Amino acid sequence: MEHFDFDMGTYNLHIIKTKKFKTIDLSVNLVIDDERENVKYRFLLGKLLGTTSSKYETIHELNMACADIYDPAYSTGCKVSGNKNILYLNASFANEKYTEKGMNEKNIQFLLNVLFEPKVVDEGFDHDIFVINRNKRIDNYKSLKDNPDAYAKAKLYEKMKVRDFDYPSIEENIKMLESLDEKQLYSFYKKIIKNGKLDIFVTGDVDVDEIKDIIKRNVHFKNKNDTVCNHIIEQKQFNEKPNIIISPAPFEQSKLLIGCKVLDMSDFERWYVFVIYSWILGGGMNSLLNQTVREKNSLCYSIYAARNTLLGVMEIYAGIDGENFEKTLDYTLKEMKNIENGDFPLDLFEGVKNIYYNSLKSTLDNPALVTNSYMSQIFLNTDSIDEKIKNMEKVTREDVMAFAKKVHVDTIFLLKGEK
Amino acid sequence: MKKNTFNKIGVDVYEEILDNGLRIYLVPLDRNEIHARMTVLFGGSILEFKMNDEFIKVPGGLAHFLEHKMFEKEDGIDPMTIYERNGASANAFTTEFVTAYHFTGSDYFYDNLKTLLKSVHEPYFTDENVLKEKGIISQEKKRDLDDPLWITYDKALENTFHNLDVKNTVLGSLDDINSITKEDLYNCYNTFYHPSNMVLTICGGMDIDKTIKFIKDFYKDLTFEKRDKPEVKEKSEPKSVVCEKEVIYKDVNAKEMFINYKISKPRKNYLDELYYGFLLNMKFGGLSGLSDIVLKDENILSMINYYNVNELSDFDIFSFNVTVKDDTEKVINLIDNKLKDQDYDEKIFNLIKKTLLNSVLLSMENVKSVCNFLANQISVYGNINYDVYSQIQNLSFEQFKETVKDLNFDNRAIVILEKDQ
What we know:
Number of domains of chain B: 2
CATH class of the largest domain in chain B: Alpha Beta
CATH topology of the largest domain in chain A: Cytochrome Bc1 Complex, Chain A, domain 1
Structural class of chain A: alpha+beta
Number of strands of chain A: 13
Oligomer: heterodimer
Number of strands of chain B: 14
Order of helices and strands of chain A: EEEHHEEHEEHHHHEHEEHHEEHHHHHE
Number of domains of chain A: 2
Number of helices of chain A: 15
Strand content of chain B: 15-25%
Distance between the termini of chain A: 56 Å
CATH architecture of the largest domain in chain B: 2-Layer Sandwich
Mean pLDDT of chain B: 94
Strand order of the largest sheet of chain B: 1-2-3-9-4-8-7
Strand content of chain A: 15-25%
Low-confidence stretches of chain A: none
CATH class of the largest domain in chain A: Alpha Beta
Order of helices and strands of chain B: EEEEEEHHEEHHHHHEHEEHHEEHHHHHE
Number of helices of chain B: 15
Low-confidence stretches of chain B: none
Largest sheet of chain A: 6 strands, mixed
Distance between the termini of chain B: 65 Å
Mean pLDDT of chain A: 94
């Protein structure tokens, strides 16, 4: 596998050449700062870019053109990455070696068109499609409570201050959307095109010069942005006495979410120790929470700890009977304390390291993961796969115990099923 | 071992049937990972079967409960502990038709494989560990009881079939779960968890000779003799559905709808199923024009999701689910009309063929999807179709029209979940 990085003047092109796959992976990314007002735009922008085009009148026409070039799989959207937003297009298409000569360029042209050539009328997106999809988005927010997992998670992050700005509540999001129009959304899109930092990644069995020429011919990006991006948000404070919110709901099952913040993390801890800590606590079936809460006490089917490395936060989730809230919370806090005290099996510690090494190897089996891994190196300055293995080998039990002391429960949200 | 190759795709498959009846399919692929899957041909829709010359009936949710309990061992070592120690990811699942146990890992392949084989052949059920599992599975069930999609899916199955046990949910009801005993588990284990009723598929960077030798050595000391297929009680099923339309009331904002079209055309062969898939794709897929309708219709809040249940011998089920804001009748009519409209476009037929060929090619890139494809072929058709690529290439528009022209879409069960007025 060889990596080639090109400064294309106003953007960067990264080509990863490998003979391993029959498919080519394309990822186009425009990075801008995250701001509070971006929240109302993000979902709709992804939706509109994927469904309107200056070249095709209908989705049907778009899909026909897509099928005609052997059906590349693609998605567009605007996502959050720490304190940044990324407008992206991720795609995978069959290498022309397995279809027809010229298909690589046709696929790239088609895909770039989706991202860069939306249908624009009078300095706005298509009015009718915008209004209908804005209203659907509002309806989706209103019916979020029908999905207790998603609702509980949204409520946790609404209450837990993890960014420089307060995250809008579900109700506030609805209000913001109601006053949004197609011209404002298009202005947001133009702002990304104007201020965004563009990086393009291509992975596959390709001729590097040929791909470079194809990209050069088809990308016409005028604005250069040299900003070095730092996506990381440092958590600086937490609720000494955790904020506990209990909200009744008409469900069979209760959803317990425990939001934690990690303070004063070093880079080594962020990229390595945090992984081990969260997996020991609530990663696989062998984790402390699964063993204690599920296997020994039969309190739940599903329990896990999920970390957000860039935000420096971790959420613990459990689906339980409401009456077992205190018991489950108690077991969870005890297991967190057990890690602080080094009271966790050596087998588990070594096992989660092996899972990490295994996941790195499996990265090399999947073109999208190969792209993502290199993208992390470029965007987040993470280590290469070889360096990651060496660094993970250095993580000790003492590192995990020391890290555990930096993890603080901040907010506890219980969506209490009362059926 | 017998070597076969997927024509025009160039993927080799090594097949062997052991003396004990286990069917093995090994696929070498240049990947760091190896995926292995043991499929037991026993799923949630089997509740009455012959044991010691008599039919016995077990509670709903038995196959799924058994799947959970196969991770409990007499020595106290959960197979998941071994997989995780080896850095592999592992899991299991139960459908209406099969139970499957699988792992994916880059290292310690033989240790993982041994763990997989032992996990399906070493039951250890006690009153105590069965009781413990009831709490866990009840929570799994309660999660589904709060999910609009699962609520409508389960009820639609119940309203589609009069007699077939597929009408029972895979998890069973809370009462079913609480009534299961260790004797029920042993009855099912002894009847269905035999190598003759299992399929082992492995794909990835492995040594074929060493792998087959390892599997044979594992079974050398186990006293399994080849057996006939377990006898499941046959039940006659009327063509009609049980209930054509049912509305369930719950405190929800959006309306969730699930529709099963019960098509009483006996499955003939793989080609018929391909043509049925084409029909659904032509009318509801990306090339159908439906995306434009959904995009511009404020009443339809989600995509109209569709799939085909083809595992039953006498029926095909075309299923749809969609989230609707207000007018469910309008959406039912839309789906009805699309299915009954016999105006087919040959150009779209050929484009679907092109995309299907591409997806077959791409599915052979991934170790997990290769194993799943092979296991599904065996469980549904009893053998592997190595000419799948050529068969798709040769599908004809005229034959397609002929195959789908007499399908009857009048038998349907509709379930709507909505707010109580």
